[in-house]
Specification:
Number of helices: 5
Strand content: 15-25%
CATH topology of the domain at 3-64: YefM-like fold
CATH class of the domain at 3-64: Alpha Beta
Oligomer: single chain
Largest sheet: 3 strands, mixed
Radius of gyration: 25 Å
């Protein structure tokens, strides 16, 4: 766990503690006893099993990255792959 705070401390420093929770779980206590854990949204969704589909992730990747800039020309790989038939296999 990243940190441990009383509820009173959490109330007074909420913004700071939320930033800390984005990096890792934060434990909240009441009268010295653990009562709750604050986690990031992505960690919460992971725990619930709400993963995105491949297509959703691909769409997010395409939105984030400049695909045209990152593309590699096809002739870059010419001659890299062995196009021979391969060896004979006995069954």
């Amino acid at each position: 766990m990243s940190g441990k705070y009383s509820i009173a401390e959490a109330r007074d420093n909420l913004a700071k503690i939320v930033h800390e929770a984005e990096r890792g779980p934060v434990e909240l206590t009441r009268r010295g006893r653990p009562v709750a854990v604050l986690v990031s949204l992505s960690e919460y969704e992971r725990l619930l099993g709400r993963s995105r589909s491949f297509w959703e992730e691909l769409g997010r990747f395409r939105d984030r990255e400049d695909i045209e800039r990152e593309c590699v020309e096809t002739d870059t790989f010419d001659g890299v792959r062995d196009r021979s038939v391969g060896r004979e296999v006995q069954w």
